[in-house]
Amino acid sequence: xxxxxxxxxxxxxxxxxxxxxxxxxxxxxxxxxxxxxxxxxxxxxxxxxxxxxxxxxxxxxxxxxxxxxxxxxxxxxxxxxxxxxxxxxxxxxxxxxxxxxxxxxxxxxxxxxxxxxxxxxxxxxxxxxxxxxxxxxxxxxxxxxxxxxxxxxxxxxxxxxxxxxxxxxxxxxxxxxxxxxxxxxxxxxxxxxxxxxxxxxxxxxxxxxxxxxxxxxxxxxxxxxxxxxxxxxxxxxxxxxxxxxxxxxxxxxxxxxxxxxxxxxxxxxxxxx
Length: 273
Fold this sequence. Notes:
This protein is α/β, with parallel strands linked by helices and about 270 residues long. It has one domain (about 10-270): P-loop containing nucleotide triphosphate hydrolases (Rossmann fold, 3-Layer(aba) Sandwich). It is built from twelve helices and seven strands. Helix 1 crosses helix 12 (about 245-270) and helix 6 (about 115-120) packs parallel to helix 7 (about 140-150). The longest helix has 28 residues, at about 245-270. The radius of gyration is 18 Å and the shape is globular.
């Protein structure tokens, strides 16, 4: 295990649904936990797929979810909303359908865009990585995720129409950077559900790499049946079948993130040297 860098808060965002946001959050977080990092995942999607993908759906109905934390009228201890998972080193803040009402309730609240950031900052030094799984929209919940984050990973389905939605998301990231979170950077674009055999898959990958250059992860996530099966068993694909193509791909993405972490540490040490 290498030298660990400062804590990182990473939002996983794309307003298009079905691009692999939750699958990416779940498996990337698990891979980093397996690399002895302390990891927290925050389910910010009312569908609650991240919560059920970690086998905690029944627990969420007991009412200690991100919804209660975001809509509380007075300051609270965010740590009380964190639950353990079956993955060593991986913790979770749960979500369920009640979160659907949060956007409406938050509209009239003071500092509505920064509520999650205020909560997450309490836990920043407890974890090496905090991942925020955002819903497939550019509403107030996703905005809270982007304002709370240091960087954003954009999972991108390797299909033509995926590129159209990408422009809207990049514009949103720029707006957030201008007004609410000047430090926000794009961590990387991750090509998901990729099929190298099709001309379209190759073309999309080429266009994305031309536009985002080194921001695109080297690893691409292939179409893989195990990635789809694992959530119904309440465990990440990396633990469901660690030798599947999907699991190996997410382990590879985690290695890319860890090597960036080492690079950041090296640069920081040189700056202070």
